[in-house]
Amino acid sequence: MKVMIAGGGTGGHVYPGITIAKTLLEREPDAHIMFVGTKRGLEADVVPKEGFNLVFIDVTGFRRKLSTETFLTIYRAVKSFFQATTIIKAFKPEVVVGTGGYVSGPVILAAWFLRIPTLIHEQNALPGYTTRILSRLACVVGLTYPESVKYFPQSIKTRLTGNPVRRSILETTRDKGSAAFGIDPKTTTILVFGGSQGARAINKVMVQVLPEVMGFKDIQVIYQTGKHDYSRVMKELKTTCGEALGTRNLTVKEYIYRMDYAMACADLVVSRAGAISIAEITGRGLPSILIPFPSSAEGHQEKNAEALESAGAAFMIREKDLSPESLIHAISGILKDKDQLRRMAAKSRALGRPDAADELADIIVSLAKGHARRP
């Protein structure tokens, strides 16, 4: 079986594709998988390191405002369609999968033109423009949230699959994670992170909140600042939390390379509301305080956070409302009410789809065997 996966730019598009690919290889060890991306996206670094072949096309995203750059983008879009067509003809995949981002556009279009079955996966509650446009060409659209269905015509075949999460996130034990961080597995743990690059808005508030949190009884914190803000945060924390720094009660990292260990330790998460983070949070069944990035494409992080809050799995604080007072109020309110913490955990677990990668692999295998009609 040959499968082509197109998607890139950010981790939210790259990592689901990698998880799908690994799941396919677990059940079809002889499968051949090829990724398509750009030299500028995260995929250029991550995909080869994961052991998969990656080929490049020259495409960029469309800007909302008309400018001279728009004409160059249109030229690249046309060029990338022909590049994708050539790549598909050479590789001869049975199925082409799009995991989002502007990379998916020309590849899914070329696959449709060549009459090859396609699957599109949407990670966010608010489907992106690329997904909504390409959905009319796809055999199946895999969705992460039930709220997403309303954005597609009834003629589109949608499947609620969830967002694929790497197996280690789901299977790492609390004892193993706690041992890796040198913390007490029996103590309530808060995990704070603002995405892989960190979040300046969260960091500014956390340095004021942490001294009070450190005063809570039986609480420990794992805090990722991001590389760009680490020095500033540590300088401030040495003044406000000096005694706690370097102890098991407060672990501060510029970057957490093993998020599976961190998630395994956590009882409460404070984070942005990116698609991957939420999939991992709900996959583990963790309560969360979500602070969506206000400039995310089409406001999709806020839609993701709203989906969890409406289900009772999370508490959302919009960045414009974020302050030391609002955050400490949310943290203390959740942690002091153990029943609420358990209820939120149960709601989060109910939203999690630990079998998402397997469901998407089932669809791909079915398409490869010709069980789905090509559009």
What does the secondary structure layout of this molecule look like, with pairings?
Elements: E1 2-6, H1 11-27, E2 32-37, H2 43-49, E3 53-56, H3 68-91, E4 95-98, H4 104-113, E5 118-122, H5 129-134, E6 140-143, E7 158-160, H6 167-171, H7 174-181, E8 188-193, H8 200-213, E9 219-224, H9 230-240, E10 250-253, H10 259-265, E11 268-271, H11 275-284, E12 288-290, H12 300-310, E13 314-316, H13 324-336, H14 338-351, H15 356-368
Parallel strand pairs: 1-2, 1-4, 2-3, 4-5, 5-6, 6-7, 8-9, 8-11, 9-10, 11-12, 12-13
Helix pairs in contact: 1-15, 3-4, 7-10, 8-9, 8-13, 11-14
Tally of strands = 13
Query: Structural class, please?
Result: alpha/beta
Low-confidence stretches: none
What gap, in angstroms, lies between the N and C termini?
Answer: 21 Å
SSE string, helix = H, strand = E?
A: EHEHEHEHEHEEHHEHEHEHEHEHEHHH
Q: Please give the oligomerization state of what you see.
A: single chain
Query: Approximately how much beta-strand content do the residues carry?
Result: 15-25%
Estimated helix fraction = 40-55%
- The radius of gyration computed from the alpha-carbon positions, rounded to a whole number of angstroms, is 21 Å
Mean pLDDT: 91
Number of helices: 15
